[in-house]
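Need tokens for this chain, all 225 residues.
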Amino acid sequence: MVHGHDALPARLGHAFTHPELLEQALTHRSYSAHNNERLEFLGDGVLNCVVGALLYERFPMLKEGQLSRIRANLVNQQPLYEIALVLDLGRQLRLGEGEMRSGGASRPSILADALESVLGAVFLDAGFEAARAVVLRLYAERLDEVDPATHGKDAKTLLQEWLQSRRHGLPAYELAGTSGQAHAQTFRVICRIAALGVETVGSGASRKAAEQAAARTAYDRLARR
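Here are the structure tokens for all 225 residues:
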């Protein structure tokens, strides 16, 4: 039995009629040939469709290119990884011994893929509307925070523009550490804005993704001031 398995449906807001689908969604290829890769493919399509439809409904004034950029920022690996952390997916994954020893349960790529697989499992279990409801629940806060004025700009760009418009210096990014094997590392980066006394940390499957995560936290903090 997957640790914490029973709590996940409550966090998702979906009770599985076929719980074996959820078990498959939480099974990495290192654990079994009956794994979550096909469900990941399906969940990726469901997620893109649902988020695209939600943005289309919410922002009738935006053009196709703007909608595409915003959707890309919402459905890429980093936000999926962050949502998976909130759901505590890492503790519930079934991983092979090698992946477990190398920190696979906290690896952004594995967690992001697992979340897409879970969405695919919900779709197969109860259909599109059920999957849509889960995506809306998981993404509600992020959708509410979408600012159409930024037209899908990435976090580092937003942070730089915010600082430059107030005549502050650019942020400094420092690699704080890496974990995992060379082919599947997790990076931790510190974003420092010395003049404002701001320091944030971000994690990601690449240094670039970690920098974006740290910049997002810094931007969100400064925008609330």
